[in-house]
Amino acid sequence: MLEGLFASIYGDSIPLAAFLAASAVSLLLGGLIALCYRKAVGTSGTMGGALTLLPFLVQVVILLVNGNLGAGVAVAGAFSLVRFRSAPGTARDITAIFLAMTVGLACGMGYLTLGVFAAVIVCVVMLMMKSLSPAVVESDRDLKITIPESLDYSSLFDDLMDQYTSDSALINVKTTNLGSLYCLHYRIQLKNTASEKEFIDHLRCRNGNLDISCGRISTAKDIL
Fold it and tell me: Which residues have C-beta within 8 Å of that of residue 115, sequence separation ≥ 6?
């Protein structure tokens, strides 16, 4: 009995009942993946609808090319002409898309139980990783300060960082304007968000009133 747990439900032809069952399972699992993605990211935007429909679409493609080499080559050529333009995705986005495609592939080949097992296991792991990952605190900020090349940035803002932040780290430094300016990128945690303007005003006095950017740390839900 256990040997046939992941056996294909298709024979030489595709029965209507089998197609409907596979379609229902792929759509349900797509909805489960979209729900899990929304819980893990915080919001899904248009990604939720794409993840819901992607398993069904992949399933239909697999059914069309199943056992037909010519159709498989034609479909591969057609998909190679399609170019996707979207905002850069995170590792969690890529995982969700690959999971949806895997579920669609399993349903298209008739391995419904395997598709269910894969979707449930990966969704549970994604939610566990989300609960274990450190959350972004409301007072966390990305701070970018532009300074002239004549200033030594190594200890220029140390006293202000100690006064207004509970934690600060210099992430990277890059030159701009043909090397005449430095752009410093800090990751900070404010002691009091109400003093953010006062903190920026003090920074402006140090950097000669050049550009300063201070905002919350970008996450995947800000992109979608």
Answer: 25, 26, 29, 55, 102, 103, 106, 107
Which runs of consecutive H residues, i.e. helices, occur in the chain? 16-41, 47-65, 69-80, 91-108, 112-132, 158-164, 196-206, 220-223
Residues 123 and 20 reside in one and the same domain = yes
Residue 44 has pLDDT above 80, yes or no: no
Average pLDDT over residues 115-139: 81
Q: What is the pTM of this model?
A: 0.61
Residue 94 C-beta-side C-alpha neighbours within 13 Å: 4
Mean pLDDT confidence for 35-60: 83
Domain that holds residue 179: 140-218
Tokens matching residue 135: 């959350």
Instruction: Evaluate whether residue 31 is within a structural domain.
Output: yes
Task: Out of 132, 160, 195, pick the residue that ends a domain.
Answer: 132
Tell whether 104 and 153 lie within a shared domain.
no
